[in-house]
Design a protein that fits this description.
2 domains; alpha+beta; eight-stranded mixed β-sheet; BirA Bifunctional Protein, domain 2; about 425 residues; about 40% helix
Length: about 425
């Protein structure tokens, strides 16, 4: 075993170009979601385990296989958050916000944790952005959250490489009829189903539709579709969502196989998919959940939202955001250091990225300016100080001129 410590399996350091990509995604999402009226919330990285057991369902793979759960010194069961929707709903209830100023429009960004096999674009510590509209029952809310996600992708320059796929899960009567049809269909194929799917047949047959087992998938291909079991009300809701998406200018394709296995999901389910990431093609996914706030102890609160993996979105960026090019302030001689520091802070106060080398003669400081890809160097010696000027060197053009000290911040802005 190497004595050199490495990041834990499934985690990684974000440094340099990778961090700039990550940061660009989060900032674009933060900026665009604000245009849609979303305010940012931050919830704890770990929660009472019951938040996620309720929010994700005991039969889900996340709860049964992937959560990082532990018992703390006080004997409480805590879990590193595997997603944030449940935490946002818990926060709405915990902070007494369920009865006032609804709907609440929430944006979030941060790290999540799942114990799963690391693969391209998927880590055990990963990062998500997401939005939730809490307390809105109208189909316009579904369309607006989707439009916001599409707008974020446009801002990132990746929208042409993704496709929105949508489906409806119907209302409660629709789902009851669909569940009965699924039970009848899968019961006829019970002996061929995987062990996990046979268990799900008893508890939650919709989750069989998510199975990754190849034999299961072949059986699922012939399963009934929920579109054949929609009530008139559910069909009208779905039609309104599609109409709003067309008005928002968001292209989409209907995919009747998009489902959500938990009982509190209803109506709209959607995914933005791409073929640019191999098998892991989903970059943004969400839907309507009308019972999750109630699971957290609050009143019935119809809600809709989505989450997206920052790592996957960052991989789709055509170009890495450029690192800011600083201005190098270079004092020549001990007497110049004080005035150079004054100038350094004046530049920063004017919004100019500026650096000063901690040591070295003129040659070495200029070498460092080139290493950090500085766009200009401001050279200040005793002669310049006496004249109230500095030498401003354009490091791209190779030109140099004498500029009054008071004018340098404005020249470099």
């Amino acid at each position: 075993m190497s004595s050199q410590l490495q990041p834990a399996r499934g985690t990684r350091d974000l440094i340099g170009e990778e961090f700039r990509r990550h940061h660009a995604v989060a900032e674009a999402a933060r900026r665009i979601s604000a245009l849609y009226g979303f305010e940012e919330w931050a919830t704890p990285i770990f929660e009472d385990t019951r938040v996620f057991a309720r929010g994700l369902g005991d039969t889900s793979d996340v709860v049964s296989k992937e959560m990082y759960s532990f018992t703390d010194r006080g004997g409480e069961s805590l879990t590193l958050r595997p997603e944030m929707t449940a935490g946002v709903c818990r926060a709405l209830v915990s902070n007494g916000l369920t009865q006032s100023n609804l709907p609440r429009k929430v944006f979030y960004a941060g790290p999540m944790f799942r114990y799963e096999r690391p693969q391209k674009g998927r880590y055990r510590q990963f990062h998500q952005i997401g939005i939730e509209v809490l307390g809105a029952a109208e189909p316009l809310a579904d369309a607006e959250v989707i439009a916001c996600g599409w707008h974020i992708q446009q801002e990132l320059g990746i929208a042409e490489g993704t496709l929105l796929e949508i489906n409806t899960l119907g209302d409660a009567p629709s789902r009851d009829a669909y569940r009965a049809a699924l039970i009848a269909y899968f019961t006829a194929h019970r002996d061929a189903l995987s062990h996990d799917s046979r268990l799900r047949l008893e508890k939650n047959p919709l989750r069989i539709l998510d199975s990754k087992d190849e034999t299961d998938r072949a059986i699922v291909a012939g399963a009934p579709l929920i579109g054949d079991h929609l009530t008139a009300e559910a069909a009208a809701f779905y039609g309104a969502v599609k109409q709003h998406l067309t008005r928002f200018g968001v292209p989409f394709r209907e995919n009747p196989r998009i489902v959500r296995g938990l009982d509190y999901y209803s109506h709209t389910a959607f995914e933005f998919v791409t073929d640019r990431l191999g098998a892991q093609g989903t970059v943004m996914a969400g839907g309507r959940y009308n019972g999750l706030v109630e699971e957290m102890g609050g009143p019935p609160t119809p809600s809709v939202g989505w989450a997206a993996g920052i790592e996957r979105l960052a991989m789709l960026l055509a170009e890495s955001p450029a690192a800011p090019r600083p201005v190098a302030v270079i004092p020549v001689g001990d007497e110049a250091e004080g005035p150079a520091l004054d100038l350094l802070q004046a530049l920063r106060a004017a919004g100019v990225v500026a650096e000063i080398a901690y040591r070295g003669n003129l040659k070495r400081r200029m070498e460092r300016a080139n290493r950090i890809n500085a766009r200009a160097a401001v050279i200040l010696g005793e002669t310049e100080i006496a004249a109230g000027v500095a030498q401003l060197r354009d490091l791209d053009a190779g030109t140099q001129e004498s500029v009054a000290l008071a004018d340098i911040p404005a020249r470099l802005q």
